[in-house]
Amino acid sequence: MCAEEFAHRFLIAVFDTVDDTVLVGKCILKELMANIGEVIKSNHGIKVIHHLIHPRDPRFFPASQLALFKEGDGNPYSKKDAKLRYAELFAYVQKPLCTYFASQMDVIIYESRASLLVLDMFEAPTNLDLFERAVVAEDRAACYAAIARACTREFVPCDAEKLHPIEHPHAHFVISKLLKSDLKLDVKLGDFIAKECGEQLASWASALLCILGK
C-alpha cells in the first residue's frame, strides 16, 4: 500500500490525523516495520518512513505535497496535540528501524535513498523538527558502531571494486553530517570511529579532514 502514489498519501494523512496511535501501531506500523527492507526500496514507501522520523520535512517532500498535508490540520475530529501524536508514532518505529539499520548498515550506508534515512534518524535536532525526536542511546550506539565497523575495511584510495565509506559519495555525506551532529549529542559517532578505526586514521587522515570540512 505505501508503495503506491496515492495510497502512501493516505497513510501519511492517517499519521497526521488519527489520535489513537496504539491502533495505528497495531494495524499499520507493525506491518510496515515487518517489511521495512521492501518498504524503503519504494520511492513512495521511503517517504512514509521519512514522515514517521521527520514529519513534513521539506528536504524530502515538495511544497505542493506539504500544502496538501496541511489541508487536514483543521480536522475537527483530531484532538491530540500534533507533537504528541508524532512522538508516539516515532516511539513505535524507532527501535525496529534502528535494529534494521544496525544489521544492514554495511549495505544501506552506500545507498542514495536509504542512507538518508540513517541521517534523518540520527542527526541533531534542527529547526525543521515538529516534535522532540529522542533516539534511545543504546540504539544510537549500536548504529554508530555499525557505521564504524563499515569504516574498518582497508582504505584503498579510489578503489575500483568498492569505495571506502569515507570516499563513497553517499556514505561520505551521511558520515560527515553525523560527525557534525556530535557537537550536540552525548553519544558521538566520532568516538566509535576513533575506537574501531584508530590504527587506520593516519592512512585516510586527508579524506577525514575533507569530511569534517564540508
Automatic annotation (TrEMBL):
SUPFAM superfamilies: ARM repeat (SSF48371). Transmembrane segments: none annotated. Keywords: RNA-binding. InterPro entries: ARM-type_fold, CPL_dom, PUM3. This is CPL domain-containing protein. It comes from Gongylonema pulchrum. The keyword Mitochondrion does not apply. GO terms for molecular function: mRNA binding. Residues 43-182 form the CPL domain. GO terms for cellular component: nucleolus. Pfam families: CPL. GO terms for biological process: regulation of translation.
